[in-house]
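User: I'm writing a tutorial on reading structure tokens. Could you give me a worked example: one chain, its sequence, then its tokens, then a sentence or two explaining what the tokens reveal?
Assistant: Sure. Here is the example chain.
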Amino acid sequence: MSNLKKQIKANATAVASAILLSTSVSQMDAQQKAGILGVDHVGINVPDMNQAVGFFTNVLGFSPVTTLGPIPLDDVWKKANHMQSATGPVTIKMIKAGTGANIELFEYKDNKGSTQQPGGDDIGASHIAFYTNDIKQSVEYLKSKGVEFLGEPFLMPSGDTEGESWVYFVTPWGSKMELVSYPNGKGYEKNNPATILWSPKNINPSKTDVNSKILSEADMRSLIDTHFATWNESDLKKREALMKKVYADDIEMIDRHDILNGYKEISGFVDVLQSRNPKAKFTHIKPAEIHHNIARLFWQNGPSEKPDATTGMDLFVFENGKVKKLYVFVDDKK
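And here are its predicted structure tokens:
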């Protein structure tokens, strides 16, 4: 009976692995065929463009960038887009919303569609969530501007969103929106997930156009040098300071055995390596090879009398001015 249970368990594991692999391959295939990179903008209809632009600029501090219209809409367009035939021209403005997706505002002149905001459980209801590092401060500020909140910030106590605080608020025209904050990350990240959700908290807002920043080869080589200094640093505070210079907050390191996320886990990994051989240092075997936002570097690690005791290669993926992913390959010693 025991052997039968083991066989059933093994078969179930194999099936689960096959399904997971099939799903992963299917996702990759779909992404390649669709060619979609991410969210460009979120579009919302507003009753008064001046009111909406004033709220997003004067209250939230965003910037209007482009304007189209008024554009007359013909009957064919209206019918295809399920619009009322008597609705007038549309005016469109695109808002740059900090470090995230843009917001596209639509105002229809003489709008004959429904003017009632959808309820929370209505099909098609939606909201935009804005990230803040200090939700209490943001709530106090928005309240001082007369913004209505639907309750007080709630801290998630457990589960995938453990550590996240959120609260809904209402715009002057009645749309429901949200403030959200998780400066120390979310619960699911503790489980070393293969994929980490994108977050604007990992973008440095003090840098102009950080989302579109392109690193030069010199920049990437400098970051790689700092990466080596990080792994050779034994002082925890100095190592953390170096990590913040070279790694994104949600840095992911992958080797043949582990997937590590964030400064703390990678620093712990470095501690283990240094405890095994305190005299060993990481050095370059040859200069890094760089293509676009990816670089690879062959390295060696060992004491001065045998600097190549261990050899391998690091593959770096750069994003928004820092190392986003680090793939580590260690050579097998014969």
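What the tokens reveal: The radius of gyration is 26 Å. The chain has a mean pLDDT of 86.
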